[in-house]
Amino acid sequence: MADSKSRLTKEEKQLLQHLLRCRHLSLLYKGSIDTYNINTFHNICNQQGPTVVVAYNARGYIFGADTSQSYTSSGNYINDSEAFLYRLKGKESSPLQIPVKVPSQAVYDVSGIGPCFGARSIIFLSQNRAEVATDATVATYTFRPEDLHGNDQALLECEVYRVEDAGDLMKTPWRQVEWTPGERSKLMDEIGSYKPYLNSVPQYRVLFLGPVGAGKSSFFNSVNSAFRGYVTNQAIAGSDSTSVTMEYRTYGVKNKHTGQPLPIVFCDTMGLEEKQGAGLDMDEVANLLKGHVPDRYQFNPSNAIHPNVPGYIKRPDLKDQIHCVVFIIDGSKVEILPEKLEEKLKDIRRKAIRFGVPQLVLMTKVDEISPLLEEDVSRVYRSKAVQRQMQLIEGKFGIPLNQIVPVKNYSSELELRNDVDILILLAVRQILRSSESYLDNFPLEKE
Ligand SMILES: Nc1nc2c(ncn2[C@@H]2O[C@H](COP(=O)(O)OP(=O)(O)OP(=O)(O)O)[C@@H](O)[C@H]2O)c(=O)[nH]1
Ligand SMILES: [Mg+2]
Hints:
Helix content is about 25%, strand content about 20%. By secondary structure, the chain is an alpha+beta fold. The protein has two domains: about 10-165, no CATH class; about 180-440, Rossmann fold. The strands form four sheets. A six-stranded antiparallel sheet has the order 1-11-2-3-5-6, with helices on both faces. Helix 5 (about 180-190) runs parallel beside helix 11 and helix 7 (about 280-290) packs parallel to helix 8. The longest helix has 23 residues, at about 420-440. The protein starts with 9 loop residues before the first helix and ends in a 7-residue tail after the last helix. It binds guanosine-5'-triphosphate and magnesium ion. The site of guanosine-5'-triphosphate has 23 residues, from helix 6 and helix 9.
């Protein structure tokens, strides 16, 4: 009912939106106006996508049930692993969320019954009245009726809202990742004990390239943090209109558990800019790839390094060369990447292909792509927005999706997070795998 007014206050609505992780709630049905009639409820609310029931009783409880699926009066159960019962307000001020225990019986979608969750765990509009009926003995949802509605089953009001803009998350992730602390340790061990292909080089050298402010230096800091066990900022990161990183830096990372260096050296560069003569010079890229540029070399945006510059590495061998180019691209700004910058990146890509250097894209700032990822990046492979941005990169640069890895760098956090660490470690593992393919192409002596 478009003209009906919600009974929720602005604060209550915000709280509910937070609980449902959605941006909009659109009122569909309001019992006091549309009548407490089950048929009316189905006529209005069927085929509406995700919805939430909001019930109010005289004891001041606001409670209800949420499903991510449409009602259709199918006569069957709806399978919904995301369904839950909740209390927004009650005796205790804090909200309560009761997730479904048996997803295959999350919602009983029958024409003659009002919104019914579980095998009759809770039925709204029971008997065509402003009432709920609850049965806490049913195993579909585990709850105590007094916690949900204070044992007051008569309703002052019952509303149903369409849940909008919660749809960013897919039900099943499109890449499988285990987000447990055990997985984090496993990844650390795998990376820490990795030996470069046929002992060809002591460490892989990985070159970071990308626009100003994309998160190149922050990515090194994030890897370093994960292996140190606390958040550290060795490389200077920050926001400016021109590159914060002015000199070439090659960084190793020590594994705090073993005291050993990781089999990888990260080479951080000045950011690329749209304008010619600003940011990293395009001619510098070949010098970097071939390994002529020494650590701490001060970049000159208008001139590339030449053999007379002190420190110039005249005859770089395999260990000095770049084994993998990692493009670092801000995932929240892919659409507005200036055309000239896009051209520069494509040009570098062509150079790297010519040199036979494998490439990978790290799509940073995934937390800024979708608000649903801010607190929990383990949702990254369920986010349609993230997938869309990765596909956009694939289309713009012709880089296959399996060479694009999303990450969130440590930026505002003071403490490490399991989800952030795992995403960072997965990226490092992918970098190792790509670097290996570079050395695969060399006629190295087999042991
Ligand atoms: N929210 C968020 N912020 C990030 C992320 N990565 C980097 N930042 C922030 O983005 C800004 C730029 O990060 P840097 O690491 O300095 O970027 P850079 O690519 O090294 O930039 P230049 O050296 O200037 O070319 C900093 O303020 C970081 O805190 C991320 O994944 N999420
Ligand atoms: Mg930098």
